[in-house]
Design a protein that fits this description.
Layout: H1 2-29, H2 34-39, H3 45-55, H4 61-72, H5 87-122, H6 127-141, H7 144-158, H8 173-207, H9 210-217, H10 222-233, H11 235-259, H12 265-274, H13 278-306, H14 311-314
Helix pairs in contact: 1-13, 5-6, 5-8, 5-11, 6-8, 7-8, 7-11, 8-11, 11-12, 11-13, 12-13
Keywords: Cell membrane, Membrane, Transmembrane, Transmembrane helix, Transport
Membrane topology: Multi-pass membrane protein
Organism: Rhodalgimonas zhirmunskyi
Length: about 325
């Protein structure tokens, strides 16, 4: 286990370094001038030059990168060009909303996806199985942003049950929870459809094994066999997909937060890209990469906990 942790930690660090290099390089070769974006096209060249010097944009790219990495390692991601406040402050302010949305989306995805997948496997070949697979196919085919618009039209504009967008703040927990229902639903439905198909396929493979027939022959009920014998042995491919879906959910918040006008990190990175706010974009992309890599790291650990036989293959 120590070897696995060491290797995954080294991979984590190297991945973040690679991401930071790529993002920094891409943001600095894009056309446009941040000084013009901030001051406007009517600004004078002297004013632009003074701002570039203030922001450090007149120094070589490699020197700026090393300086940024050095300060980022200490928790200082610089000052936002556009908002004129420390990037760390922007992230700290908006991170709770994005994490809440992502965690809620993943929770709904896992619960709904695994439940529907196991029901479809148990009812294999019946109308229930066919209905669940139809739902999953439709869920995979529907883009999240289009589903978001449909949910707003139905539940906010038509039925007026839920707010169409915005976020009232954490001071009012009930209103905050209501404002996250539609975004969470839009974020989770597509991913739960994918997970349902994978769960069904994995469960059906396990059902064909001899020990399942033996368990049924001892008189155990179908649902008890599913819960105690089939699901634990079908978890490895399920956990693999869940790890991949963390990345989809995290990046999906960018679209969802803009559709529902939520002041989270997804909306912040969209605004920062539009305004060429280099420090903010770099910090957010590295943060999203860290979340995804951490999720994959936890998935690797979960493999060993679920099936100790995989321990030797991962070292």
């Amino acid at each position: 286990m120590q070897v696995i942790l060491l290797r995954r930690t080294m991979g984590f660090v190297l991945t973040l370094i690679a991401v930071s290099v790529i993002v920094f390089a891409v943001m600095n070769v894009l056309p446009g001038d941040p000084a013009i974006t901030i001051l406007g096209i009517d600004s004078t060249e002297d004013a632009r030059a003074a701002l570039r010097a203030e922001l450090g944009l007149d120094r070589p790219v490699w020197l700026r990168y090393l300086d940024w990495v050095w300060h980022a390692a200490q928790g200082d991601f610089g000052t936002s060009y556009f908002f004129r406040v420390p990037v760390t402050e922007l992230i700290t302010e908006r991170l709770p909303l994005t994490l809440s949305l992502a965690l809620a989306g993943m929770t709904v995805t896992v619960v709904v996806g695994i439940t529907l997948g196991m029901i479809a496997a148990a009812r294999h070949g019946t109308f229930g199985d066919w209905a669940i697979m139809l739902f999953s196919q439709m869920g995979i085919a529907v883009p999240a942003f289009w589903l978001s618009i449909l949910l707003v039209l139905l539940f906010a504009v038509g039925l007026r049950w839920l707010p169409p967008g915005g976020f009232p703040g954490w001071d009012e927990p009930l209103l905050a929870a209501r404002s996250l229902i539609l975004p969470t639903t839009a974020l989770a439905l597509v991913q739960s459809a994918v997970l349902a198909r994978v769960t069904r396929s994995s469960a059906l493979e396990v059902m064909r094994l001899d020990f399942v027939r033996t368990a049924r022959a001892t008189g155990l009920s179908r649902w008890r066999v599913l819960r105690r014998h089939i699901l634990p042995n079908a978890l490895v491919p399920i956990v693999t997909i869940v790890g991949m879906q963390v990345a989809a959910v995290v990046t999906g918040t960018i679209v969802i937060e803009n559709v529902f006008y939520l002041p989270g990190l997804g909306r912040l990175i969209f605004q920062s890209i539009a305004n060429r706010d280099l420090f903010t974009v770099q910090a957010l992309v590295v943060l999203f990469a860290a979340i995804v890599v951490t999720a994959n790291f936890l998935v690797d650990i979960a493999y060993v906990l679920i099936d100790p036989r995989l321990k030797g293959r991962m070292t």
